[in-house]
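Question thread 4412

I'm putting together a teaching handout and wanted feedback from people who do this every day. The idea is simple: show students a protein as raw sequence, then show them the structure tokens that encode its fold, then repeat with a second protein so they can compare. Below is the first pair exactly as I plan to print it.
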Amino acid sequence: MKEIEDLLPGYNCGECGFRNCREFARALSRGPDEGTDIDLCPFLGRKKHLERRAEIEVKLPEIRRRWAEGEVDEEAEIRGVIDGIVADFALAPLPGEPACREDLLAIDRDAQFNVGDVIRYRPLGCPITHFGKIIKIDHGLVTVQMVGPRQLLGDENFAPKDVGVCMVAAFEGIVSRGRIPEVGETVRFLPEHCMMQKVHSGVIVHSEGKMVRIEGIDLKVW
């Protein structure tokens, strides 16, 4: 999978129908049964990417053979795309939920929220604008689940509240790949929904089975 991921444009735009290039590379590597095709990437047909596309087409048959025969160890390494840092684990949504939970603290203390609102915000230290649906409000912390503009296009009721910059106080989700951390441990983790595929750091404050809560979130990795 990493061989294919390294050859993709790396824009993590979602136009292929997957959340990022890593997921698209995984589906491509597993084969056509995953419901994907190289033509789903709108950039691989452009002149600047044609050589990479050709390399992918050459490599895919062998990679798919290895995957089918169980030779691919997807758990071996979890590495951020933008920074190249190796994470302890990847964080996926809680069972039955569409995205990992994030606890936010708005810099604008006059911002007003209601459960069910969709908000547009930028996490402090992150260049990417996020969209989140509020599922809980507790003592000033707003818990959201990430939603993307692509999923909301065409919805006439989509009118996000622009709340500006927010501090991300915590993440909640399940460990989908990698090791299960201990409570109190400072960890490096990769949120699967992160468009930049940037490794984050934080402290484990709760761990139950594969479910974890991480606080003290930082885009700097210690």
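The second pair follows. I'd like the answer to focus on this one:
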Amino acid sequence: MKILVLGGYGLIGDAVIGRLLRDGHHVAGLGRDILDAQRRRPVVRWIAADMSKLLAAEDWLPVVAGMDAVVNAAGALQDGPRDRLDAVHRGSVVALVAACEQAGVRRFVQISAIGTDPASANPFFSTKAEGDKAVTSSSLEWTILRPGLVIAPAAYGGTALLRALAAFPGFIPAVMSRQPIQTVSVTDVAEAVSRAVAGALPPRSALDLVETEAHSLADVLLAFRAWLGLPPARIVPIPAFLGRIAAVVADGLGLLGWRSPLRSAALVALARGVTGNTRSWNEISDHRLQPLEATLAAMPAHVQERWFARLWLLKPLVFGVLSLFWLVSGIVGLIRQDAAADILVSHGLSPALALGTVLAGSVADVVVGAAILVRSFARAALMGMIAITLGYLSAATMLAPDLWLDPLGAMVKAIPALCLVLVALAILDER
């Protein structure tokens, strides 16, 4: 079959594409940033498109033409500069379904979420429910799959946060640690999609994909810590108000383009519990969904998983420290520009050139220190930091080599700061 997978390089979408390829299908994947995906899966026909801008059936018709099935594995957690929930979850799905009906697409698989409700005050759950309604109101052979907490070898968003908290040194911090969670292996989700597109599931079915038994969040974190091979640690409950403060900060970072899983929508989902009903799946399938223990055992962790878990929580600290360092450096330079210029004058520069150099350098420091806080500018800001540092070290070496022997180590300290920039570049990618 010819199958289109929306969100094809995401946590679920990538696993679905891998399974469909093994089944022998011809697969196309759609997403906004497809360059990395093209390199990793060149056999897939990748389509670069932003779903939030495909809001009419005519926009989708060229995309779905000739397809036998469509799998919608795309989604977003919360509104932000890169994400518009109503457009992605509802508007584009309404248009897509209409296009599929016009183009003669036979089957449609919608990856939804546990807890969708059109009356929910949370936009994630309400817009997801509206998208589901558009699917169920169609004439297509549809299947709606509602996975619990999806566990995969890859880790984005909430599952990355779980790994990071599990790897916390000395203890494991947890907000609402007693809330129930039912997990599902990403391989089981891909299996369900495979069966749905093949017609092996009853058409027009809505199915929860969750393990049989629920675990508390604390138990999930302890299981992840053991999976990482780290020494046992106790769970330390974090007051709910601290979680809300963290969510407000994460929401603010979301406005700057950072997609933190700590945002308010995630806390709302956790507060209601991530649980579903296994009965509907068990009644139609002989494939039992794996419990958490089996899921983790099937993807053993090694040193790279421990590296990732430890670095993940350090990432905001790295970027915050770099921003503060460059902002303070620039502001101090502007406040004490005369003193800084005097140093350059003492090494042979004219007063005018020295003052101009100090002002230009200080402004550049402030610009890159502020730009690194905005996700879309972060890479350029980091490259600017490298260029400025190398320029500073080169110019100082030529004009005032004696500064290398300064007892306060101003020149020497620039080198570890440069190394921290390289670390930030290495961990910048989100998926």
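Top answer:
Good format. For the second protein you could add a caption like this: The chain has a mean pLDDT of 91. The longest helix spans residues 303-335.
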